[in-house]
């Protein structure tokens, strides 16, 4: 149901100076007004979009629940394009729950996750891409990611999608007009007329798809596992990236017995760093669990920083760790979604460069012939900037850093663009094979619908439910 009135706490769980309860629906004013007691016992509806001081009272006992500021906002000039009331009270969880219970007792329904934003979408205030950008904006981990989400919220991605759909629709219209209205002597369009029109649409889609891998990096970040035998300086490297003492560092081997995950900002890309326990044979059951978690972290990582102690000769444990990382698919040929060969990135870090170097680099090069080596010292900061620069190059793979161009950040959007591209290619092939134009129109219509999934114009109810269920309650 989307014609009832919903309510929820809109601020995050926990204690804060201010907490907000949001109410949206046709009966929002009628439900909240009886709970709102103002100085002088005023009963008329306050002015729209202005904060009004008063108290929220329990409707049964007349007990004052909190001192509040309330905004009554008339549709359609609201987030949901419905009547909206926002109650700003003190940010204690008990206070907010009691106010919410009072609103629900008046007849409101508890909002589902993302239901306020879903109503904004259903009521035409936002398209689906803009609605998804709301959560991206909230969850942004870097300024670059925040700017991309704001671009999408302002409709820049939607505008480009609509340009591509309009170009495709123009071709469909020319084909179908000649088929549907033969009595009007509309000439049948020839392949040489249609090819440049389809190519124009394909170019618009290709530009968006070309930047989608980079866009996803800024949104989702990169999981980077720091792997190595015990006491090679993995935790020190984590602290150096974070520029804070997050992980415990001691000269004693095996200090880290579990994985430690933290996020760093690498030139605008969220870097999800995983400091792991040293991978080593052990009979200690606790250490065994730590080693198992380290292996799992490495297997799920996008990039591995394989750390060695440059002040010591290469050990058998170093060789075993190298072999394990290679078995996981890092530094060896693999296949991506397009079926083309690639290498899962691994970067070799020769740590403790401030000490006399005893490691056999030639043997390392035999173990890792195509990998990049960086010498670092977390004690003297040697090589740390070079490590960040090299890691940035490795992650972005030659792509330019964020610019003001529109970048697709969603896997869902990327998949829709890929399907649109395939259907446009199929329409070209159909033209080349001189098949009836009805079949060309089918391919073009499929591309048109695929792009419509991005903005929500052809999205199914199941897809909408899935997307908005990932939102927090109150948004």
Automatic annotation (TrEMBL):
What Pfam families does this protein's entry cite? MMR_HSR1 (PF01926), MnmE_helical (PF12631), TrmE_N (PF10396)
Instruction: Relay the cofactor remark from the entry.
Output: Binds 1 potassium ion per subunit.
Q: Name one GO cellular component term.
A: cytosol
Q: Name one GO biological process term.
A: tRNA methylation
Residues annotated to bind Mg(2+): 235, 256
Which Gene3D superfamilies does this UniProt record tie to the protein? P-loop containing nucleotide triphosphate hydrolases (3.40.50.300), Probable tRNA modification gtpase trme, domain 1 (3.30.1360.120), tRNA modification GTPase MnmE domain 2 (1.20.120.430)
EC class of the enzyme, as a word: hydrolase
Q: Which domain of life is it from?
A: Bacteria
Q: Which InterPro entries match?
A: G_TrmE (IPR031168), GTP-bd (IPR006073), GTP-bd_TrmE_N (IPR018948), GTPase_MnmE (IPR004520), MnmE_dom2 (IPR027368), MnmE_helical (IPR025867), P-loop_NTPase (IPR027417), Small_GTP-bd (IPR005225)
In the record, the note on similarity to other proteins reads: Belongs to the TRAFAC class TrmE-Era-EngA-EngB-Septin-like GTPase superfamily. TrmE GTPase family.
Q: Which HAMAP family match?
A: GTPase_MnmE
What protein name applies here? tRNA modification GTPase MnmE
Q: Which gene encodes it?
A: mnmE
């Amino acid at each position: 149901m989307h014609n009832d009135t919903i309510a929820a706490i809109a601020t995050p769980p926990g204690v804060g100076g201010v907490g907000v309860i949001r109410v949206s629906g046709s009966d929002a004013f009628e439900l909240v007004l009886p709970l709102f007691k103002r100085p002088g016992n005023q009963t008329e509806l306050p002015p729209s979009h202005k904060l009004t001081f008063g108290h929220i009272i329990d409707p049964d006992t007349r007990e004052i629940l909190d001192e509040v500021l309330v905004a009554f906002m008339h549709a359609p000039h609201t987030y949901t394009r419905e009547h909206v009331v926002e109650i700003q009270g003190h940010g204690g969880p008990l206070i907010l729950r009691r106010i919410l219970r009072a609103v629900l007792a008046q007849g409101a329904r508890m909002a589902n996750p993302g239901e306020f934003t879903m109503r904004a979408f259903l009521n035409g205030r936002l398209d689906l891409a803009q609605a998804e950008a709301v959560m991206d904006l909230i969850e942004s981990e870097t300024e670059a990611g925040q700017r991309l989400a704001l671009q999408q919220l302002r409709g820049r991605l939607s505008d480009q999608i609509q340009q591509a759909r309009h170009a495709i629709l123009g071709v469909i219209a020319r084909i179908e007009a000649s088929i549907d209205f033969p009595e009007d002597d509309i000439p049948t369009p020839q392949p040489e007329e249609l090819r440049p029109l389809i190519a124009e649409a394909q170019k618009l889609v290709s530009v968006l798809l070309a930047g989608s891998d980079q866009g996803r990096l800024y949104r989702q970040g990169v999981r980077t596992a720091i792997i190595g035998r015990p006491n090679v300086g993995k935790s020190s490297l984590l602290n150096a990236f974070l520029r804070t003492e997050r992980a415990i560092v001691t000269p004693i081997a095996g200090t880290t017995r579990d994985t430690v995950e933290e996020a760093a900002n690498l030139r605008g890309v969220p870097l999800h760093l995983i400091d792991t326990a040293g991978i080593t044979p052990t009979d200690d059951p606790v250490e065994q669990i730590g080693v198992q978690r380290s292996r799992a972290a490495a297997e799920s990582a996008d990039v591995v920083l394989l750390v060695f102690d440059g002040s010591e000769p290469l050990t058998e444990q170093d060789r075993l760790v190298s072999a394990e990382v290679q078995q996981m698919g890092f530094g060896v040929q693999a296949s991506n979604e397009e079926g083309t060969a690639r290498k899962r990135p691994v970067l070799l870090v020769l740590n403790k460069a401030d000490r006399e170097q005893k490691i056999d680099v030639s043997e390392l090069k035999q173990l890792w012939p195509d990998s990049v080596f960086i010498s670092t010292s977390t004690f003297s900061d040697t090589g740390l900037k070079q490590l960040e620069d090299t890691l940035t190059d490795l992650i972005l793979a030659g792509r330019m850093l964020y610019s003001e161009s529109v970048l697709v950040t969603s896997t869902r959007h990327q998949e829709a663009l890929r399907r649109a591209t395939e259907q446009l290619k199929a329409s070209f092939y159909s033209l080349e094979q001189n098949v009836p134009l009805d079949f060309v129109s089918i391919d073009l219509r499929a591309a048109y619908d695929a792009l419509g999934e991005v903005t929500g114009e052809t999205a199914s109810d199941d897809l909408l439910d899935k997307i908005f269920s990932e939102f927090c309650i109150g948004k």
